[in-house]
Design goal:
It is built from four helices and 14 strands. It is mostly beta strands. It has two domains: 4-51, no CATH class; 61-80 and 134-243, Jelly Rolls (Sandwich), CATH 2.60.120. The strands form two sheets. Strands 1, 2, 4, 5, 6, 7, 8, 11, 12 and 14 form a ten-stranded mixed β-sheet that branches. The chain has a four-stranded antiparallel β-sheet with strand order 3-13-9-10. The longest helix has 11 residues, at 4-14. It is globular. The two termini are 19 Å apart.
């Protein structure tokens, strides 16, 4: 006789994945507070992930650090796990010696780090030119590599982003939220960071960008980084999915 845990495993394997998690109506069906059965489990017949809503006292934020110590302005691509600059070449991101070759591709392995984009042993993403230094994307809470991979099955909704920069010029660069589907579709939304800066605020180099967006396997961000710039990008999340098994 199979154990209850085995039944859960089998059920999770056959449950369908609903891509419309983040509709206002659909989300509550996956929230464990509304599910039947034991707390923290999905209701019968629903998917093997449940949407969790942030509540008072809960910390749910991801702090990313973007560094561009190089001598050229670079555009960083974040998330978009199925098709980002570490999985396929993005010619529009190439700048001089930064040829943006995915490190694990045949071409990337042949160049041994020169001009490649890939992850180091700490899980940080590194963008290499023909010579040091390299540009870096890291995460304070989790290896950035693992964070990107997890969004293939565990998306989240960010309600606002706190952007802390080192130079005023960096505030002129827009954050682009885009969706690139494996059916060939593409759309994007440009978020003007400086537009959210209050004229009366004391922190001149820190802005709360109140523009919600979703990150999943097909959605990501692009953000241009000035020469020598370091940006702290705090993503404040109000809903996210998690396994129920």
């Amino acid at each position: 006789m199979k154990s209850n845990f085995s039944d859960k495993i089998n059920k999770a394997g056959y449950d369908s994945y609903d891509p419309d998690y983040f509709g206002d109506v659909q989300m509550d069906r996956y929230d464990p507070d509304y599910a039947t059965g034991k707390p923290g489990t999905a209701a019968p017949g629903q998917a093997s992930t449940a949407v969790q809503a942030a509540r008072p006292g809960q910390k749910l934020q991801i702090n990313l650090t973007l560094q561009n110590p190089t001598a050229v302005k670079l555009t960083f691509e974040l998330f978009s796990a199925l098709n980002n600059w570490t999985t396929s070449l993005k010619p529009d991101l190439v700048v001089g010696a930064f040829t943006m070759i995915p490190a694990l591709s045949t071409e990337g392995l042949a160049t041994i780090g020169v001009g490649t984009v890939g992850y180091d042993q700490a899980g940080d993403l590194r963008v290499y030119g023909a010579a040091p230094p390299s540009a870096v994307i890291g995460c304070g809470e989790y290896p950035y590599n693992s964070l990107v991979e997890s969004t293939k099955v565990l998306p989240f909704k960010c309600v606002f982003a706190r952007v802390a920069v080192q130079t005023d010029a960096q505030l002129n660069n827009q954050i682009i939220h885009f969706t690139r589907t494996f059916g060939g579709g593409y759309k994007q939304n440009q978020i003007n960071v400086r537009a959210f800066k209050k004229p009366t605020q004391f922190q001149n180099l820190e802005v709360d960008v109140l523009a919600p967006f979703v990150i999943d396997a097909e959605q990501g961000l692009r953000y241009a980084m000035e020469v020598g710039e370091v940006v702290q990008l705090g993503l404040f999340i109000n809903r996210w999915t998690r396994p129920t098994v």
